[in-house]
Amino acid sequence: MTQQRTPSAYREALAWTELTQLMASPLYYGAGVPRGDGRNVLILPGLFGNDVYLLPLHSWLSRIGYRPVGSSLTLNIGCPERLRLRINEELARATRRSSGPVAIIGHSRGGILARGMASDLGERCSHLVLLGSPVGGLQTLAQAQPPQRVAPASRRAANANSRWRRLLDPDCTAPDCGCPFPADFLRPLHGQTKVTSIYSRDDAIVSAVACPVPGARNIEVRGTHVGLVYNSVVYRNIAEVLAPEKR
Asked: Is this prediction's pTM over 0.85?
C-alpha cells in the first residue's frame, strides 16, 4: 500500500501563483457568476492575519453585488472573546448603514471566530462559509469522550496562538475561561443558516480531515492554504453559495 504524503508547507509559496491566476480570470471581474443581493458579507482573516491579504476577496464581492465588511483586526491572535467583541463593533457600524441578513466568510482561524459569531447572530446570519478552517475537527475534539489528541500540525498552530495569547491576554484561559465564546462555538446554529466548508486536500497548514462539518455542504478543492482566499474555484463556489434564491 502506498503511503499518502503529507503536503509540504513550502507549497504555500504557490499562493501567489493562485492570486496571479485569479487576476487573469474573467470570473474575478464578475463574468459568469450569479449577482449578489447587496447583503453584508463579514470576512474574517486567519491566524496572525488581518484584512490586508483579503482585499482581493473584498473587491470581488463588491463587484458582484455584495457589501464586504472587514474585521478591523490588527492581527487575528489572542483571546477569541476580545476579538469577537472588536469585530462586533465593526459589524454594528456596517449594519447601521445597511440592515438585513449577514453572511460570514472565515479563513482558517477566522472560521473559528465566524462559527461563534454565527451562533450568536442566530437567524440574522444567512450563510457561514469556512475556508480551510478546522471547525468540524475542533467541535469533534471538544465533544469527544474521552477527549482526543490534536494532530501535530494543528498542535503547532495552537501552541503559537497560546504563546501570543499569554502575552496579549494574560488572563485568558480559553476554552476554560467562562467567556461566552467557547459555548457559542459549540452551540447549534439557527436552522436558516446555510453552512459551507471549502478546504484543500493539498493544505499543509490545516489538515483536510479537520475541515468537513457534519450537515454542511463540504467542498474539497486543490491548492494551498493561504491560496484558498485567491482560488478561482473557491470564488465560484462562494458566488453560488451566496446567490439569492430564485423565486
From this structure: yes
